[in-house]
Amino acid sequence: MIPKDRWGVHETHCCIIDGCKYGDKDCPVVLGLIRQKYFCESCRDDYYYISYGSQEYFDMEDKVWLKIDKKIKKVKNETRIKKLNRILK
Ligand SMILES: [Zn+2]
Ligand SMILES: [Zn+2]
Asked: Which bound ligand lies closest to the C-alpha atom of 68?
């Protein structure tokens, strides 16, 4: 497990959808332990045509964050199920 005082770099650079920027398997963002601060370049890639700061841009941001929050929920569920399975074995 990555020590908590090193979580900050992950929080600002990693993405639960696109993965850890440092290739860490224990990335707290990827594991759903913390919510990333920003969405990454790849998340933005689908919306490359939208210019920064426009109303469309803010709508796009909402959409991306919704996607990220959904994924966080899914990962947390999976983690819970994995833990349960371990207990039941
Ligand atoms: Zn990471
Ligand atoms: Zn991303």
From this structure: 2
